[in-house]
User: Fold this.
Amino acid sequence: MDASQTGPVTDSLDRRIISALQIDGRAAWHRIAAALGEPERTVGRRGTRLLESGLVRIGAMVVRGRSVVVGVRCAPGRARVTATALARRPDCVFAHVLTGTPDCVAELRCPRDRLAGLVLDELAGLPGVTETRTLPVLRHVRTIREWHAGLLTETEIAALKGTAASGTVPATVDPLPVGDASPELSRADRLLFHAVAEDGRRAYDELARVAGVSEATARRRLGALRREGKIRIRAVIEPAVLGLPVEAVLWVRTPPAEVDAVAAALAESVHVRYASFVTGERQLLVLTAFPDEAALHDFVTRASWLRAVTSVDVALVLTTLKRGGLPAPWLQD
Assistant:
């Protein structure tokens, strides 16, 4: 992919900086430069340009409830309207319009005690809907926050995460949520969240002013919220900027005894951005990205994990209304 196709993304260093921000969206430029072995001034200049261009957005999500995948069939010509309504929901993580059936797919965060209301009332009331399928996620295999397209070495990744030789997990890594509990945030924490939701790289002195606390308190509270899994900070990008413009959603059906092996194989692929074990007859939902259709074809016809699979349904992503909890720029007020 040349520069004309990606705008401000000009070469492999830009893509490596983007990958570094995917690992830790708040990493300082000097830490990214040290991990990548590049001059700090160069990394800071390029990274700032990428953020200002809007190709990389750093935002935040409050983790509430558990993941539910929703597939929607729409009336003719209404798929974009339906996907937009899903994307505007504050509990929506991602929303894509697809080829084939379903017409759009989304992931929502829904406490179990609200699931009946979601299925029976809320989804049925979306504009343009003719049929919905609600599939609770039983286990995440990989989420978008863990994907970085294989552009960094394991040593570089470890340096960005701050992983010590002992293998301990640093404070900058957001853990996956446990259970169904919805976090109750204090007023200061809510103000911190709204500030990083707008700009995940806001400096601590600015966060302190917004929340009405000291800089040391802002640093400590944001670190605690991330360690506890109450807030996730993530970089949101279009895969095309990393040279992967072809996105596809796969619905994979496999014998129950083979699910873990297939899931493990999928998690090893740099083309798998997201994979979850869901309820229903097709146990695995997989979001992928490829350089071209030929690479997608090879993935769904020649990969070794296909030996343990009964069927794979493939749908191309036509447009994306929300990623990583951030609406597409044209949907934001």
